[in-house]
Amino acid sequence: MKKLVLTGAAGRLGSYLREPLAKMCDTLVSTDIVDDIGTLYDGETYAKGDLASLDDMMRVLEGADMVVHMGAYADEGPFEKLLGPNFVGAYNIWEAAYQRGLKRVVYGSSIHAVGMHPKTDFIDTEVRHRPDTFYGLAKCFAEDLGSMYWDKRGLESVHMRILSCAQVTNARALGSWLSYDDLIQLTQRSIETPVTGFSVVYGVSNNDRAPVDNSKASFLGYRPKDNAEQFADKILAETGPLDSQDKGHMCHGGPFASVELGNSGVATMNIVDDTKKI
């Protein structure tokens, strides 16, 4: 592959994708809104760009084969705050990809697109959208956008519906954890699979307690290797009784399912910032 583009390259998940993606192509163009992302990997270049600007996305996607779209405002917030980067940004990626003749968009979607489904439901990739926040609503929008651009314009997309890609620090993560190695594998399979059409796959590791059914996405060849059960004894020993009336414990979206619309979900979570440094 000649050229890949990675949006959200300055983010935590983007930091783990940069090196393996750079090895898959002649040129990796990493992009974000920061001035620079420091030391670059072999074959990697950096282009500052604003997702809310179609002109910027047209510029960074020129000559690309595919784009891995991980850029977004990565939390719940007022609708107006998410409108530019998350809603308009998704449109700009798909429209620029179409105009530039890309084959596929690989998108960092989220469990929050279906976050209000109860965890007692073993949901598959065809379950109806049931967003838990404006953030989740933006993921629904991008998934539907991808479906429409495939049906109407023949632009493929794989929507990696990530559950939780961070260190395991709570009981929910025993089921929802996606390790960084499995994130890399999932992204690589989403790029390498010859034909995907419009596809949705859950981004989750091989956890004993995984609450979702990924079988309909098996054609991608994604076979996660890590299992959060290794953390279970420690986490459960530290966890007190959970409130069965709290939607944050009972719904797939976790804390995002219980916060008021517009209020941060990340603020209620103990996410360790282990952004990869070169």
From TrEMBL:
Keywords: Carbohydrate metabolism, NADP. Gene3D superfamilies: NAD(P)-binding Rossmann-like Domain. InterPro entries: Epimerase_deHydtase (IPR001509), NAD(P)-bd_dom_sf (IPR036291). Residues 5-162 form the NAD-dependent epimerase/dehydratase domain. Pfam families: Epimerase. It comes from the Bacteria. This is NAD(P)-dependent oxidoreductase. The lineage of its organism: Bacteria, Pseudomonadati, Pseudomonadota, Alphaproteobacteria, Rhodobacterales.
